[in-house]
Amino acid sequence: MLVPEVENALNKQLNAEIYSSYLYVSMAAQCKADDLDGFAAWLETQAQEEMTHAAKFYNFIIQRGGRVKLAGIDAPQVEWETPLAVFEDTLAHEQKVSAMINDLMEIAIDQKDHATQIFLQWFVTEQVEEEESVGMVLGKIKRVKDSAQGMYLLDQELGQRQPQLLPGTTTAAE
Q1: Distance between CA 89 and CA 82 in Å, rounded?
Q2: Phi-psi label, residue 74: left if phi above 0, alpha if psi -120 to 50, beta otherwise
Q3: What's the confidence (pLDDT) of residue 114?
Q4: Does 51 fall in a domain?
Q5: Residue 100 lies in a domain
Q6: In whole angstroms, how large is the CA radius of gyration of the chain?
Q7: Domains in the chain, number
Q8: How far apart are the first and last CA of the chain?
Q9: Mind listing the pLDDT tens digit of every residue in the chain (174 residues)?
Q10: Beta carbons within 10 angstroms of residue 116's beta carbon
Q11: Which of 96, 56, 53, 83 is nearest to 151 (CA)?
């Protein structure tokens, strides 16, 4: 059974994961508008992964006897000047999510909720991977600078991204 403080924090994170998906869809739309379909595909995959994360929180809250409380989702930003700006904001957002997961872990530790701590460990590890992945793309964008050919090749590379499988699943959507 979840104590109210942990339940509320888990619900806050569930809603934050949904917002993250919403944000990445908005970023993908910007990239599509700029004819960067590979960038858009990378961000669409990111959006799908965020919804999978939200589903993990949803299922965990229910499994622990808690009540899921969905909140209104704020409208995300809709325009960025460059792909560099998109990925700078992506990295800043992932760093914010990492801090939120760390804060949630602290609440679970304070409440001596070992099951939630174990559940959250996957997200702690995931956020390290998320920040690294976005950082690599950001580094490549910076190296390409104003090269149209470099941007074209990077767009092609990013379009190859496939959703990662979650442990114990056979598809990314499970």
Answers
A1: 11
A2: beta
A3: 98
A4: yes
A5: yes
A6: 17
A7: 1
A8: 25
A9: 899 999 999 999 999 999 999 999 999 999 999 999 999 999 999 999 999 999 999 999 999 999 999 999 999 999 999 999 999 999 999 999 999 999 999 999 999 999 999 999 999 999 999 999 999 999 999 999 889 999 999 999 999 987 665 555 555 544
A10: 24
A11: 83
Residue listed under structure tokens 């959507």? 173
Residue 125 belongs to a domain: yes
Q: CA-CA distance, 26 to 4, in Å (whole number)?
A: 33
Q: How far is residue 45's CA from residue 162's CA, in Å, rounded to a whole number? A: 7
Place of tokens 């760093």: 95
**Residue 63 belongs to what domain range?**
4-158
Where is 94: in which H helix or E strand? helix 83-110
Q: Looking at the domain assignment, is residue 62 inside a domain?
A: yes
Task: State both tokens at 12.
Answer: 């806050």
Residue 110: how many CB atoms within 10 A of its CB?
10
Q: Are 43 and 27 in contact (CB under 8 A)?
A: yes
CATH code: domain of residue 9: 1.20.1260.10
The Cα 119–Cα 2 span in angstroms is 13
What is the chain's length?
174
